[in-house]
Amino acid sequence: MVSLKDLPSPSTVYAAYASISASTMLLRTTINQVIPSQLQNSIVSAIRHYIFNNRSTSQLTLVIQEKDGMSQNELYQASEIFTSTKFHPCVDYLNISKTSKEDHLNIKFDKSETIVDFFQDVEITWRFVREKLENSSYDDDFEDCEAENKYFELSFDKKHKDFVVNCYVPFVLEKSKAIQEDKKVLKLHTLVNRGSAIWDSIKLEHPSTFDKIAMDPNLKKDIIADLDMFVQRKDYYKRIGKAWKRGYLLHGPPGTGKSSLIAAMANYLKFDIYDLQLMNVKSGSSFRKLLLATCNKSILVIEDIDCSVELPDRMGQQPRNSQSTLSGLLNSIDGLWTSCGDERITIFTTNNKERLDPALLRPGRMDMHIHMSYLSINGLKILASNYLGINIESHSRYKEIKHLIRYSEVTPAEVAEELMKSSNISLCIQGLVEFLKGKKTGVMSKQTTKADGINTFEIQIPDAKRQKTDVVAEV
């Protein structure tokens, strides 16, 4: 048993403590003077890495660096997105941010942290490492910046190596891609002239969806099915040796919903839109540069193609004072640039399909022709539901309206305008009936002069086949 008299005196303990403290300070000073701080960080990191990875000799660690040489490491970015959904209450520091063009918050690790994930009963440890580096190793341009080394460590039992590499890592990549798609902010890109034409963008906030478009339901299904098939056929396009792109032609009278359909397609696919005004492009080379600057998963829109490009007439005469010619356009959309990106859609619109050169209409350039026609009764049902919140078929004047729609050349835009004129449903319906009666009179009544000089009126009924649907697809 130890007695109090066997213990050292307080002065002896204090002297020993002072000696240890002085030795520690001397050692720290010596280390700071002899060993550069960058090397110190590396040594500390190596010791920490050794201790962490040797807790169990059966552990294997995969290191995912932020960059692969000069390029961004796709797997690091995927890891950052994936782990943002796996934060545990034990995590002490998180980095949170938001840009003006985003609707969501961005959350990621702020300091070195460790979390544990379980995938098919396999325990996998994620460790985020953030180390400060010396600025002296970087260019002078970055001397005001704090240099850092960031990476992820993925640790697990060695026996699960093949499972993690072949199953878990691909799962992380796919999961992060899905998370990105859900958070994607669609953009509308347009040309600006700053010495030369370049793309500028704003947030695409057009509310149009397939549910809201006033067109025949069966044709909607056809368009949606075509879009779905296109985005799912990456391997198919690669196998047959074709660029992964598709072209659509929207044609029909003004006000029939061509722009709304484009917005609905973009919202459905979550594709950006590039609005290309050909009259602002001065040369074929500028045109190709602009096309190369578009991103994957995008829709290139060229509206009013019959007005935007000077086309040779059917007699072979060349256009005068042409800046954008048919040959330049065809070379650009069919050239090698199409292999420089994936999932590209090109949409042309026109009010006068008959004016377009046949070379522009062939498959491969415009694969699907969609006729945006006058409003049908099916389209009216959708408009009445959207604008008035009613089932038009249950209204007392439905039969009258149905008859008027059948024999009227009226666009969805015109009817929508009538339905917005009042918050009173009865007044809107009455106004719509009067409007349709005026349209019917204009269509059915046409004054003609017979040989005997007697004026009569000839009843003209629009093509019934054309009136059945809003859209005619030609594949």
UniProtKB/TrEMBL annotation:
Keywords: ATP-binding, Hydrolase, Magnesium, Nucleotide-binding
Cofactor(s) needed by this chain: Mg(2+)
A biological process from GO: response to stress
Catalytic activity reported: ATP + H2O = ADP + phosphate + H(+)
InterPro entries linked to this entry: AAA+_ATPase, AAA_N_dom, At3g28540-like_C, ATPase_AAA_core, ATPase_AAA_CS, Mitochondrial_chaperone_BCS1, P-loop_NTPase
GO function terms (MF aspect): ATP binding; ATP hydrolysis activity
Pfam families: AAA (PF00004), AAA_assoc (PF14363), AAA_lid_At3g28540 (PF25568)
CDD domains, per database record: RecA-like_BCS1
Limits of the AAA+ ATPase domain: 244-376
Family: Belongs to the AAA ATPase family. BCS1 subfamily.
PANTHER family, alphabetized: BCS1 AAA-TYPE ATPASE
Name of the protein in question: AAA-type ATPase
Organism this protein belongs to: Heracleum sosnowskyi
